Amino acid sequence: MTKNNHPESQQFTFGQFILGLEGLAILRSSLLDAPTVKMSAEKIAEIALQLNESPWSNPVEAVERTVTDGYGEWAPSYDQTSSPPILAEEPVVHSLLAKYPLGTALDAACGTGRHSAYLASLGHRVIGIDATPEMLEVAKSKVPAAQFKVGDLTSLPLPDNSIDLAVCSLALTHCPDLSPPIAELSRALKPGGAAIISDVHPFLVMLGAHADFRSDRAGKAFVRNRIHLPSAYISAFKDAGLRIVQCIETLYGDREIAAMGFAEQINNVRLDGLMEAAVKGIPNVIIWELAKSE
Predict the structure, then answer these.
(1) Which are the contacts of 184, defined by CB distance < 8 A and separation ≥ 6?
(2) Is residue 248 helix, strand or coil?
(3) Could you give the CA distance from residue 129 to residue 139 in angstroms, rounded to a whole number?
(4) How confident is the model at residue 2 (pLDDT cuts 50, 70, 90)?
(5) Chain Cα centroid distance, residue 105
(6) Collapsed DSSP state (helix, strand, coil) of residue 66
(7) Which of 41, 69, 106, 221 could be disulfide-bonded to 166 (CB atoms 3.0-4.6 Å)?
(8) Rounded CA separation 275/36 (Å)
């Protein structure tokens, strides 16, 4: 992962969050599904009158962490739950990685090494790089055959033209500017090499999605995601000499919705159909398959 500096606490209530979801359901259904609009509007009116009562008044406080601090706190529990973005992107990324011949493979912003483990299972010589030492300790125990290094996405500790295949998963969304890390990935790739980049979809980030987790130190915490439109990726790829082979966008389905951290709370207050109306079919991950010019 790379670095940022925006540690601060944010607080809202469960009811306020539900009102936002009901509003999203209305917007998505407004010209297509009058019964859903009516049901959500009635629920908004009902909740608005009870915002000072439990469970709607229950506070939700989230402390913002820098990338290295946040992922350092998250490292011990990171592999214990499957987040919706990981559920969506991992099968696609693995299918793309499996297409390429064996060689030296880079897992950039490797985290706990989930893609490193897959690359090693295919037979690649694997190098994992991450800015968070705590994540690397988990990765080392998971993939002892791989080589792991501390490093930042904007300054990879690798020679030029040394990597055959690179993967960078759900990390560029934390970067203020896409150009430096993408240029670094291209620099490390051999001519003709390939890169698979996945990221939280910018549409989802626009709706307020960030990398949130439970922290022993702070309760609920999050690392900020930044909005990078597809045009920004395309421009950075072009400048770095990377050709787009394909772009894949995954959508929220039943499995991803069930894995959302607040899905159980919503079921407990009997908001039947809310998550499907508000979230199902929204893009959650964008995946790029790239080739470096010969």
Answers:
(1) 153, 154, 155, 156
(2) strand
(3) 10
(4) very low
(5) 21
(6) coil
(7) 106
(8) 12
Do residues 216 and 271 lie in contact, with contact meaning Cβ atoms separated by under 8 Å? no
Q: Read off the pLDDT of residues 228-266 as tens digits, 9 standing for 90 and up.
A: 999 999 999 999 999 999 999 999 999 999 898 777 778
SS (H, E, C) 196-246: EEEEECHHHHHCCCCEEEEECCCEEEEECCCCCCHHHHHHHHHHCCEEEEE
pTM exceeding the 0.90 threshold for the entire prediction: yes
Beta carbons within 10 angstroms of residue 54's beta carbon: 9
pLDDT in tens, 189-214: 999 999 999 999 999 999 999 999 98
Q: Name residues whose C-beta falls within 8 Å of residue 266's C-beta, 6 or more positions apart in sequence.
A: 18, 21, 274, 275
Q: Which of 106-115, 156-165, 224-233, 250-259 has the lowest mean pLDDT?
A: 250-259
Strand order in the sheet with 211-215: 9-13, 59-65, 219-223, 211-215
Which tokens is 7 given? 């540690």
Strand 59-65 to strand 219-223: parallel, antiparallel, or no bridges (unpaired)? parallel
From the CB of residue 12, how many other CB atoms can be counted at a distance below 10 Å? 12
Two structure tokens written together for 148: 């792991």
Place of tokens 């307020």: 208
Tokens of 171: 């990390």
Q: How far apart are CA 148 and CA 100, in angstroms?
A: 22
